[in-house]
Prior knowledge:
Layout: E1 2-4, E2 10-12, H1 15-22, H2 48-57, H3 65-76, E3 80-81, H4 83-90, H5 95-113, E4 122-124, E5 131-133, H6 136-142
Antiparallel strand pairs: 1-2, 3-5, 4-5
Helix pairs in contact: 2-5
Amino acid sequence: xxxxxxxxxxxxxxxxxxxxxxxxxxxxxxxxxxxxxxxxxxxxxxxxxxxxxxxxxxxxxxxxxxxxxxxxxxxxxxxxxxxxxxxxxxxxxxxxxxxxxxxxxxxxxxxxxxxxxxxxxxxxxxxxxxxxxxxxxxxxxxxxxx
Length: 146
Protein backbone atom coordinates (compact mmCIF):
# COMPACT_ATOMS: atom_id res chain seq x y z
CA UNK A 1 0.00 0.00 0.00
CA UNK A 2 1.15 3.54 -0.72
CA UNK A 3 -0.06 6.73 1.02
CA UNK A 4 0.91 10.40 0.99
CA UNK A 5 0.50 12.30 4.27
CA UNK A 6 -0.48 16.00 4.39
CA UNK A 7 3.14 17.04 4.98
CA UNK A 8 4.18 15.34 1.71
CA UNK A 9 5.63 12.25 3.34
CA UNK A 10 5.16 9.16 1.19
CA UNK A 11 4.54 5.89 3.00
CA UNK A 12 4.93 2.48 1.43
CA UNK A 13 4.16 -0.63 3.45
CA UNK A 14 1.47 -2.96 4.67
CA UNK A 15 -1.92 -1.78 5.94
CA UNK A 16 -0.91 -2.95 9.44
CA UNK A 17 2.24 -0.79 9.35
CA UNK A 18 0.16 2.15 8.15
CA UNK A 19 -2.24 1.73 11.07
CA UNK A 20 0.62 1.62 13.57
CA UNK A 21 2.19 4.78 12.17
CA UNK A 22 -1.09 6.68 12.06
CA UNK A 23 -1.96 5.51 15.57
CA UNK A 24 -5.30 3.97 14.66
CA UNK A 25 -4.41 0.38 15.35
CA UNK A 26 -6.66 -1.48 17.71
CA UNK A 27 -3.94 -3.93 18.66
CA UNK A 28 -0.51 -3.63 20.18
CA UNK A 29 2.23 -4.59 17.74
CA UNK A 30 4.99 -4.40 20.31
CA UNK A 31 4.43 -7.57 22.29
CA UNK A 32 2.49 -5.76 25.04
CA UNK A 33 -1.18 -6.39 25.68
CA UNK A 34 -3.30 -3.36 24.87
CA UNK A 35 -4.88 -1.91 28.00
CA UNK A 36 -7.20 0.98 28.53
CA UNK A 37 -7.78 3.07 31.61
CA UNK A 38 -10.79 5.37 32.07
CA UNK A 39 -10.02 8.82 30.71
CA UNK A 40 -13.19 10.84 31.30
CA UNK A 41 -12.87 11.90 27.67
CA UNK A 42 -9.24 13.02 28.06
CA UNK A 43 -6.68 10.86 26.21
CA UNK A 44 -3.81 12.55 28.04
CA UNK A 45 -3.50 10.33 31.09
CA UNK A 46 -0.14 11.46 32.35
CA UNK A 47 1.21 11.81 35.85
CA UNK A 48 4.70 12.14 37.29
CA UNK A 49 5.09 8.36 37.72
CA UNK A 50 4.16 7.23 34.20
CA UNK A 51 5.92 10.24 32.63
CA UNK A 52 9.15 9.23 34.43
CA UNK A 53 8.71 5.58 33.42
CA UNK A 54 8.11 6.70 29.82
CA UNK A 55 11.21 8.96 29.80
CA UNK A 56 13.41 6.25 31.30
CA UNK A 57 12.13 3.62 28.84
CA UNK A 58 13.34 5.49 25.75
CA UNK A 59 16.08 3.41 24.15
CA UNK A 60 18.33 3.14 27.23
CA UNK A 61 21.11 1.51 25.21
CA UNK A 62 21.50 4.63 23.07
CA UNK A 63 20.84 7.31 25.71
CA UNK A 64 17.29 7.68 24.42
CA UNK A 65 18.16 7.57 20.74
CA UNK A 66 16.16 9.64 18.29
CA UNK A 67 13.04 9.47 20.43
CA UNK A 68 14.63 11.33 23.33
CA UNK A 69 16.53 13.60 20.94
CA UNK A 70 13.21 14.63 19.35
CA UNK A 71 11.55 15.25 22.71
CA UNK A 72 14.51 17.30 23.99
CA UNK A 73 14.42 19.39 20.80
CA UNK A 74 10.69 20.04 21.13
CA UNK A 75 11.02 20.87 24.85
CA UNK A 76 13.75 23.45 24.12
CA UNK A 77 11.50 25.00 21.46
CA UNK A 78 8.53 25.38 23.79
CA UNK A 79 7.00 22.10 22.67
CA UNK A 80 6.60 22.82 18.91
CA UNK A 81 8.52 22.39 15.65
CA UNK A 82 7.80 21.95 11.94
CA UNK A 83 8.50 18.64 10.20
CA UNK A 84 11.43 20.24 8.38
CA UNK A 85 12.98 21.46 11.64
CA UNK A 86 12.51 18.05 13.25
CA UNK A 87 14.03 16.13 10.32
CA UNK A 88 16.98 18.53 10.18
CA UNK A 89 17.61 18.19 13.92
CA UNK A 90 17.38 14.39 13.81
CA UNK A 91 19.56 14.35 10.68
CA UNK A 92 17.05 12.32 8.69
CA UNK A 93 15.68 12.95 5.23
CA UNK A 94 12.92 10.38 5.00
CA UNK A 95 9.46 11.16 6.25
CA UNK A 96 9.07 7.43 6.70
CA UNK A 97 11.98 7.35 9.14
CA UNK A 98 10.42 10.25 11.07
CA UNK A 99 7.11 8.37 11.11
CA UNK A 100 8.95 5.41 12.67
CA UNK A 101 10.36 7.59 15.46
CA UNK A 102 6.90 9.04 16.13
CA UNK A 103 5.27 5.59 16.08
CA UNK A 104 7.77 4.33 18.65
CA UNK A 105 7.08 7.34 20.88
CA UNK A 106 3.34 6.68 20.65
CA UNK A 107 3.80 2.99 21.41
CA UNK A 108 5.91 3.79 24.47
CA UNK A 109 3.43 6.45 25.66
CA UNK A 110 0.55 4.01 25.37
CA UNK A 111 2.44 1.29 27.17
CA UNK A 112 3.48 3.50 30.10
CA UNK A 113 0.09 5.18 30.58
CA UNK A 114 -1.92 2.04 29.90
CA UNK A 115 -4.12 4.12 27.61
CA UNK A 116 -4.46 3.26 23.92
CA UNK A 117 -5.11 6.92 23.06
CA UNK A 118 -2.23 8.48 25.00
CA UNK A 119 0.04 10.77 23.02
CA UNK A 120 3.34 12.43 23.74
CA UNK A 121 3.77 14.12 20.32
CA UNK A 122 0.81 15.23 18.24
CA UNK A 123 0.22 17.13 14.98
CA UNK A 124 -1.35 20.58 14.72
CA UNK A 125 -2.36 22.12 11.41
CA UNK A 126 -2.28 25.90 11.08
CA UNK A 127 -3.70 26.18 7.56
CA UNK A 128 -0.26 26.82 6.05
CA UNK A 129 1.24 23.50 6.98
CA UNK A 130 1.54 22.56 10.60
CA UNK A 131 3.83 21.42 13.34
CA UNK A 132 4.50 18.63 15.76
CA UNK A 133 3.87 19.51 19.39
CA UNK A 134 3.95 18.05 22.87
CA UNK A 135 0.56 18.55 24.60
CA UNK A 136 0.96 21.02 27.46
CA UNK A 137 0.19 18.61 30.31
CA UNK A 138 2.89 16.14 29.35
CA UNK A 139 5.27 18.95 28.28
CA UNK A 140 5.25 20.32 31.83
CA UNK A 141 6.07 16.87 33.22
CA UNK A 142 8.83 16.10 30.71
CA UNK A 143 10.58 19.42 31.39
CA UNK A 144 11.56 18.01 34.79
CA UNK A 145 13.34 15.01 33.28
CA UNK A 146 15.30 16.65 30.49
